[in-house]
What we know:
With 219 residues, the chain is mainly α. The protein is built from eight helices and four strands; from the N terminus they run αβαβααααααββ. The protein has helices at 2-8, 27-40, 52-62, 69-82, 91-101, 121-128, 145-148, 172-180, and strands at residues 20-21, 49-50, 193-198, 206-211. Strand 3 and strand 4 (206-211) form a beta hairpin. The longest helix is centred in the N-terminal third of the chain and has 14 residues, at 27-40. The chain is globular and about 60 Å long. Mean pLDDT is 79; it is low at 188-196 and 206-219.
Amino acid sequence: MVKGCMLRMGYTGPLNNANYLKACFMKPYKFFIHLVVHALSHRKGGYDVMKDYQMRMVTALVLNKKYNFSRIIFHYMKDNITSGSKTWVYPRFVQMMIDHAYPNLVKDEQNDLLVLNHMDNEKLIRLSKYHKNWPEPKTKTNFFGFIKNANYEDPDPINHLKWGNDEEMKEKSAADELKRFEDFSETRNDWFTKEVKVKKRGGKRTPKVQAEEGSTSQP
């Protein structure tokens, strides 16, 4: 589902990589992904590359799917606290929780407020440019899903396999997307785990389940 949504958004990069390049999307979706990565990502840099969980967030927003964003935020906030890092993550959400818990808390504007730099025209111009190694995609894509229609409904709320409703899956673009899937290799299952075979002296080999975040058919 996630990979299908990426193809509908005009993604031209390889599907089997662990990371996905923002530069492989058309400008409108490139800008949209840029906003999601900056607002909802725990990363402190490397915003040109996206992980699987970040593309699942983008897919959930585009297809109007229910998604536990707060779980991701608290998960990486906890990791950041236990890692010893002195860098803030999700400062906007921390401030919202403080404001909700202590609405009358007095704030020192000189020392207590974290100043965030907003996007300006210079950053927009820089975002619109492409690298010579990753030129602007030639495939033209249209808006779809919740971005196009505010009344758009989740096309597959049960199995989370479809990236379009019945009408959208009849379009020619859907056939092209399915064609691209012939080279796609699914290596992880719906429970974010993969089997790792461990060698043992004597006896039979048994698979060991190792928890790992990764690609999934669910949001």
